[in-house]
């Protein structure tokens, strides 16, 4: 699914089919401030111990605040054997500039 690159624009992230596992790797307090519907919260520090919650045969798209933690998550997922992974470039901050219903913080 993500053959043309691992960086997703906010528009492309929003248009992902429901079969894509969306993962929010921010902290719970950040999730409380703003979130993108349809994503499961697995903070980056917990991701490695919670990999069993994700299906490696399905695509995964991660996001964080600005894109750095989700890029780290992407690398961790790849090292764990996930092959179809991507992340939201610019994070929820970029997404909220496209979709004003998602608060910026």
Which structural traits does this protein have?
105 residues; alpha/beta; Oxidized Rhodanese, domain 1; five-stranded parallel sheet; 5 helices; globular
Describe what this molecule looks like in 3D.
The protein has helices at 10-14, 28-33, 44-47, 68-79, 91-98; strands spanning 7-8, 21-24, 39-41, 60-63, 85-88. Strand 4, helix 4 (68-79) and strand 5 form a beta-alpha-beta unit. The protein is built from five helices and five strands. By secondary structure, it is of the alpha/beta class. 32% of the residues are buried. It has one domain: Rhodanese-like domain (Oxidized Rhodanese, domain 1), CATH 3.40.250.10. 33% of the residues lie in helices and 16% in strands.
- Total count of domains: 1
* E-strand count: 5
Please describe the biggest sheet, giving its number of strands, its sense, and whether it closes into a barrel: 5 strands, parallel
- CATH topology annotation: Oxidized Rhodanese, domain 1
Alpha-carbon distance between the two ends: 31 Å
Number of helices: 5
* Arithmetic mean pLDDT: 95
Gist?
The chain is of the alpha/beta class and 105 residues long. It has one domain: Rhodanese-like domain (Oxidized Rhodanese, domain 1, 3-Layer(aba) Sandwich), CATH 3.40.250.10. The chain has helices at residues 10-14, 28-33, 44-47, 68-79, 91-98, and strands at residues 7-8, 21-24, 39-41, 60-63, 85-88.
């Amino acid at each position: 699914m993500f053959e043309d690159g691992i960086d997703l624009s906010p528009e492309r992230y929003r248009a992902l089919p429901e079969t894509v596992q969306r993962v929010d790797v921010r902290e719970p307090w950040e999730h409380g401030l703003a979130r993108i519907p349809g994503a499961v919260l697995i903070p980056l520090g917990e991701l490695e111990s919670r990999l069993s919650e994700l299906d490696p045969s399905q695509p995964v798209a991660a996001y964080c605040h600005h894109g750095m933690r989700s890029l780290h998550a992407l690398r961790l997922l790849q090292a764990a054997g996930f092959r179809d992974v991507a992340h939201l470039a610019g994070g929820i901050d970029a997404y909220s500039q496209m979709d004003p219903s998602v608060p910026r913080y």
